[in-house]
Amino acid sequence: MNLPNKLTMIRLILVPFYVFFLLMPGIPHHYLIALIIFAAAAYTDHLDGKIARKHNMVTDFGKFADPLADKIMIFSALACFIQLGLTGAVVLIITAAREFAVTSVRLVAADKGKVVAANIWGKLKTVSQIAAVLAVMLFQYIMELSALDIIHFSDPAAVSLWFNIIGQALLWLSVVFTLISGIIYICQNFEFIKNAK
């Protein structure tokens, strides 16, 4: 297994760790720990692709495992947010629907011997999702520090409300990019759907 594929596996291994800390409010600074682990996992996504392309280490395993690891990483975070009451199920449903649709097109294309590359919108989608997840975790950690009386706000409820509004806006912005990238991807590769038997 080459280095990019090892990084992909590390990303998958990190998922249950940030999920554990995200869902364990009894552990002090659990949001910060989850944020750091998620950020490390997200960085491996950037690193593995960069190394694979630079050193011509692209493999069939990597083509399959890398996008799968990305999906598991994002879906897990969104599912945790739903359980914690930080977002609604619709965000996850739309995100998952897009990923299943795009994966289906890729499978049909692969069956015809075609490799469909990601486009710029797909990259924007991934960046916006990672940024939104990190922001929500950061906002929750700041409010955790406020609850522990480490940070003092004159009106903690108002700060919490604004953090929630900004966090939701970022999550929904990622949903917009998710939808746009999915629609563009399907339109660009509609020939595979149209000619599927």
Note the topology.
Blueprint (H helix, E strand, L loop, with lengths): L2 H20 L7 H25 L5 H24 L5 H23 L8 H28 L8 H33 L1 H5 L3
Helix pairs in contact: 1-2, 1-3, 2-3, 2-5, 3-4, 3-5, 4-6, 5-6
How would you portray this structure in words?
This protein has helices spanning 3-22, 30-54, 60-83, 89-111, 120-147, 156-188, 190-194. The chain has a single domain (3-194), classed as Four Helix Bundle (Hemerythrin (Met), subunit A) (Up-down Bundle). 80% of the residues lie in helices and 0% in strands. The protein has 197 residues and is mainly α.
The CATH class: Mainly Alpha
Number of helices: 7
What is the ordering of alpha helices and beta strands? Answer: HHHHHHH
Whole-number count of domains: 1
Structural Rg? 18 Å
| Proportion of beta-strand residues | under 5%
Query: Could you give the distance between the termini?
Result: 35 Å
CATH architecture: Up-down Bundle
Estimate percent helicity.
Answer: over 70%
Q: Supply the helix-strand structural class.
A: mainly alpha
The backbone outline, from C-alpha atoms, is globular
Number of β-strand runs: 0
CATH topology: Four Helix Bundle (Hemerythrin (Met), subunit A)
Which regions are unreliable across 5 or more consecutive residues at pLDDT < 50?
none
> For the residues shown, what is the average pLDDT?
88
Largest sheet: none
